[in-house]
Amino acid sequence: MSSPAETRQLKIKTGVVKRLAKEIFMYQKEAEKQQAKVAAMAEAGADEHDVRKQKEVLQETLVMIPDTQRRLVDAFADLEAYASAVANLKETPEYDAAISVLDEARPQLASA
Question: Which of 27, 74, 77, 87 has the most CB atoms less than 10 A away?
Answer without folding.
Answer: 27
